[in-house]
Amino acid sequence: MNEQISTIKLEYLGKIKAATSLAELDQIYLALFGKAGIITLLPKEFPKMEKAQLASIVPAFNQLKIDLNSAVESKRSEVREMSYASLSQESVDLSTPITLPLRTGYHHPLMVFEEEIKELFKKIGFQQFGAPNIDTDYYNFEVLNIPAEHPARDLWDTLYIDKSGLKERNENWILRTHTSNAQVRIMKQYKTPVRMMVIDRCFRYENLDARHEHTFDQFELVFVDKGLSMAHLQWLSEYFLKHFLGEETKVRLRPKYYPFVEPGVGIDGTCLFCKGKGCKICGGIGWLELGGAGMIHPSVLKNGGIDPKEYSGIAWGPGLERILMLKLGVEDLRVFRNGDIKFIQEKGVPAS
Ligand code: DAH
Fold first, then answer.
1. Rounded average pLDDT over 321-332
2. CA 46 to chain centre
3. From ligand 1's centre to the CA of 261, what distance in Å?
């Protein structure tokens, strides 16, 4: 056993001396002191030995333990010192240009569509206007000819704001259901004639499905001037829809009720999928409704401080996602807001 102890000492002190890294030293340490390490297993032999033998072996074994342990420790500090020293010799030039592969983002398809609309209408003299997303029911309904308790309010599933935490409790606060809340604000703020557009977010208390979302965007147009008629509305609708859906698109105005216009219409475009022949998507009629519009009701003009005998107005407010769904061939409206990066990469435009 004494011989064995000397051999171990010789062999391992040599290995420790030759080690050049902390990882190597860890391995040596494990081979000695680990669960199945030589030093751990050696004392298992002791019970088989005689007392006289043990009297010399045990002190030699203890010394072996101490020597190997301290050899590993001192070699560890030596290796550490060496690596600090070599690090301090190195230098980094922070001004070196690096070429990282850049990840380009994408403009959201809805954003791209909205920017194009703004450009298109800017060309014919329309300016952009912003109205609050959180508004009073006065601007969202009352000034638009929709008094409280009137059944027409049921046309909009409204999200009301809990007033209990508000200082200003004499107003009813809501999330605007449409961008039409801008109409009277625009009329009050600007002198006639007026050419304004609002492209922004609206909110409704909807049952969500492929064609309904609680949050969506609308494109409101407010055009007030002398002598405007439905012919102007037809022209503007064609200007808008032909640009985005193709020159061959036909546009028709179909009577429809909205309390703030008279007459009110649904703007229909020929179905993109069957080119007007009739298919599943358009329900066999060859047309798709793309928005609501009309001649601004005289009492709404009056609410905006405009004399309806002198001026007439055109307003519209199509939902943008519905039109974009057709343009992009998307079947579920919810993809516009669910943050699906694949969709944005596929349908958006790379940001250069
Ligand atoms: N605000 C209406 C809605 O959200 C759409 C609309 C219809 C807007 C007719 C108009 C309009 O400006 O004249 O359902």
1. 90
2. 71
3. 9
